[in-house]
């Protein structure tokens, strides 16, 4: 990326997306931040996203959309909440005040409104506003990308697909970032089980931009969901040099690679990826995506009977400072894996009690609204499983199995809760649960035939009974 290729005031106007600033520099830097966000890539020549944001806010300190993208990105990272982070709360407030004091366009006003709703945990409300923007401005990439990420956080699988499908015809192939819509659309197709089409669309994206890590990630999901392990391994390896450049998504793609190794019972290879890539990156970035992947990978390995040694204690150093965040239930569940794994019962208790407290008066925060129905019972099931109370874990988890989608993440990420339920059922003292465990395995086999992991679990279930 070079700075001259970014859009100035006139170029944004020509695209029908005028920005309320007279600074060409601010317009170009806004484009630079947006481009890095879409590509999941910190461009060092621009000082990365952080450097670009600092330069952007310096170029025009009162540029409303500069504040929208800067504060919006921090919120979308889910590593911080306005409830605990006073500086972030101040940024939201300042953006709203700037918008009130200036004569900005209706589109920019809606952006401010969406960011403010998101900051209060009303993710669906924010998505509705971004969709309103896209009806009139289908090429507004910020609205599209923010809504894409937010649909992911609330498990709105059909919306993930349809929000991109609706705008695709309005984009011209020569428009910057056009190819990245393919990866986004592919991901929505994949999460709605349209695997063949998802693979085709992602490959179209990669033909246009081989370094598009989100398209790579989408194909990795397809092979995961179809249990095409060898294909997945070959694919990740053949394109590693391309997708590695996307430093914000690389760790997650390595996580997918490690899942194939777990399927194949190659636990040392999976641990090697954990040590050399996932944990190293998660410690360096503190990114929530990297952190939940690290927790999930260790949990899966432990369920397979692998000894992960001191890794939980090291990972706890990263998760523990987030115990009181409660930004998303998805994050909470993964932090709990770490505190349970590290045998840090005080932290586990604190996380659960904090969630119970917030569930009493959730306000508009959808994650806190779901705490009573989904969040707390899943946490309790994890604790019961950890204590060896398998039948209790089944009683808590089984009724929620079709609701867990609402915690967000992907089918592949949420699969850990399916696995947990199966393990609990198979290990339970209760005869009915044991039968249930076998039923769940039959069902799993029907959904992704030929999975070595499922075959192993079936053998284990038969041997136990």
UniProtKB/TrEMBL annotation:
InterPro entries to which the protein is assigned, alphabetical: TPR-like_helical_dom_sf, TTC38
CDD domains, per database record: StaR_like
Keywords, alphabetical: Repeat, TPR repeat
Record SUPFAM superfamilies: TPR-like
Recorded family membership: Belongs to the TTC38 family.
Protein name: Tetratricopeptide repeat protein 38
């Amino acid at each position: 990326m070079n700075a001259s290729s970014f859009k100035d005031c006139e170029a944004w106007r020509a695209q029908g997306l005028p920005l309320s600033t007279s600074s060409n520099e601010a317009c170009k830097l806004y484009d630079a931040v947006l481009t890095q966000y879409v590509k999941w890539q910190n461009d060092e020549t621009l000082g990365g996203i952080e450097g670009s944001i600092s330069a952007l806010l310096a170029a025009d300190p009162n540029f409303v959309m500069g504040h929208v993208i800067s504060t919006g990105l921090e919120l979308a990272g889910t590593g911080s909440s306005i409830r605990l982070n006073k500086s972030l709360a101040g940024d939201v407030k300042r953006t709203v005040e700037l918008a009130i004091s200036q004569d900005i366009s209706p589109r920019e006003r809606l952006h401010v409104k969406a960011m403010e709703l998101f900051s209060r945990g009303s993710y669906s409300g924010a998505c509705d506003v971004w969709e309103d923007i896209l009806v009139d401005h289908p090429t507004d990439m910020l609205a599209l990308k923010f809504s894409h990420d937010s649909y992911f956080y609330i498990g709105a699988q059909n919306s993930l697909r349809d929000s991109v499908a609706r705008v695709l015809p309005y984009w011209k192939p020569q428009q910057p970032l056009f190819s990245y819509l393919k990866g986004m659309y592919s991901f929505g197709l994949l999460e709605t089980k349209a695997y063949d089409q998802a693979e085709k669309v992602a490959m179209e994206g990669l033909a246009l931009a081989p370094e598009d890590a989100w398209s790579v990630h989408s194909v990795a999901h397809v092979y995961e969901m179809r249990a095409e392990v060898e294909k997945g391994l070959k694919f990740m390896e053949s394109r590693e040099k391309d997708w590695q450049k996307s430093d914000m998504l690389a760790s997650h793609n390595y996580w997918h690679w490690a899942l194939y190794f777990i399927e194949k019972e190659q636990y040392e290879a999976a641990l090697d990826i954990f040590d050399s890539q996932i944990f190293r990156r998660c410690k360096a970035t503190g990114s929530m995506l990297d952190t939940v992947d690290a927790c999930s990978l260790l949990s899966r390995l432990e369920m397979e009977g692998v000894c992960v040694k001191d890794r939980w204690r090291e990972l706890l150093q990263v998760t523990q400072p987030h115990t009181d965040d409660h930004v998303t239930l998805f994050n909470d569940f993964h932090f709990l894996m770490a505190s349970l794994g590290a045998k840090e019962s005080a932290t586990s208790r604190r996380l659960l009690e904090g969630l119970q407290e917030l569930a009493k008066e959730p306000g508009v925060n959808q994650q806190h609204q779901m705490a009573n129905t989904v969040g707390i019972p899943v946490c309790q099931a994890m604790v019961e499983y950890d204590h060896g109370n398998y039948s209790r874990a089944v009683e808590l988890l089984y009724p929620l199995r079709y609701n867990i989608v609402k915690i967000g993440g992907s089918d592949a990420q949420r699969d850990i809760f399916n696995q947990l339920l199966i393990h609990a059922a198979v290990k339970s003292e209760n005869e009915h649960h044991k039968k249930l465990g076998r039923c769940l395995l039959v069902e799993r086999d029907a959904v992704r035939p030929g999975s070595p992991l499922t075959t192993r679990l079936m053998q284990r279930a038969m041997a136990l009974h």
